[in-house]
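User: Can you fold this complex?
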Amino acid sequence: MRADAHTIAVERMRLGDHAFAHYADDRVRWEVPAVFTYRGLSRNEKVIVMMAPGCPADEACERLAAFGGGADAARASGQLVFSSMRELVSPDPGFTARRQISRLHEETELACREGFAGLRTVIDMAWVQDLEMDVEGVMQREKNADALFQGGRYAEICSYDRRVFDHAVVEEMRVSHPVALLERPGDLQAHHAPGELYLIGDADMATGDIFRAAVSVAFEAPPGRQALVDLTRLCFLSAGCAGDLLRLIGRKGTCDRVVVRCRPSQARILRRLRAMWTDALVLEEKEDGR
Amino acid sequence: MTGGVLLDLRFTGADLPMLRLRVATAAAAAGLDEARCDELVLAVYELACNAIVHGGGAGSLRLTRAGDAVHCQVSDDGPGFADAGAGRRGGLWLAGQLTDGVEIDDGALGGAVVTLTVGRRFGRRQLSD
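Assistant: Here's the predicted assembly.
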């Protein structure tokens, strides 16, 4: 799926975010929830994982544990909870947006009373079929849940299986969520605008070809012979890719000036490579690209 | 901080994104702040790439803490650093710049063993130096 202005990697999520995620593979389906969960646990946030119907809590915990340690301990302490949409809305037999939002408010309040910084939930949207909910009703809920996220105490991922939901539904969900996630941790995607390049995800050995191609395209014929390369939505910038960027800026081309917008940690890496800088480079530090 | 093993695992190229996540999570849990975690993750990544590219396609990582320091040992089955080219030494150099100490040893059965140290209370290196 294409990247745009509201695409980020799951690592960049924080409380207050309402995100769309997608998968079409049973191994991949656990990757985003795993990163989301462990990031939350490390920030003293409570995490509720709402699995697909039929997935036992023990299996879900085992799946998450495969990506890192600490899931069992967090579950035992109550910081990590496995549940389902059916369980969340019970004793009501069916789903209503009002009931679900009310229950999530309650769970957020409970998490804060328990001493956590907030609550994050990851919801496998397979519950839609389980509770015989119509897709239009879910869309309405997704588009009218803003109050849940105000105040920065709650974050949520709604994860869609592309094998189950129609392409048009998945695309509408992607567009209507305030945040859309890359499919997998470690992915790199580029979002181009005239004279501007936004890089999202991880720039490393595995994604280096994508990185170099995207930068090269951005430098082909930018308006006014100026280009912006925004790195602030990158989760990881390897030294190799940082060097590649500086090499491409240094090439004789159609760019007279390249603004590299980056976070302080990325600026420190680029400064380490100062020997490769040219007069065309302007470094613009920004704390967060969100 | 107290002592203990935080991570002990084998990795290949396909594991690198999750390796970074696990190092970041473990380092944060050990008390390193976000900037120090970022630098440790990058340093570990450079060494892991060295192991994959020059050390036989795989390596081992062991993250421990002792007192106020986190130590990360990356080992591989390659030829070691004796005849290493600029590319491999570049990764090692950067890892040294990003952390508070680097030790290089030969593995007991060959290969290279590199240990990084990052401390919560150590003075941070100025990367712009």
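The mean pLDDT of chain A is 91. Residues 188-285 of chain A form a domain with the Transcription Regulator spoIIAA fold (CATH 3.30.750.24).
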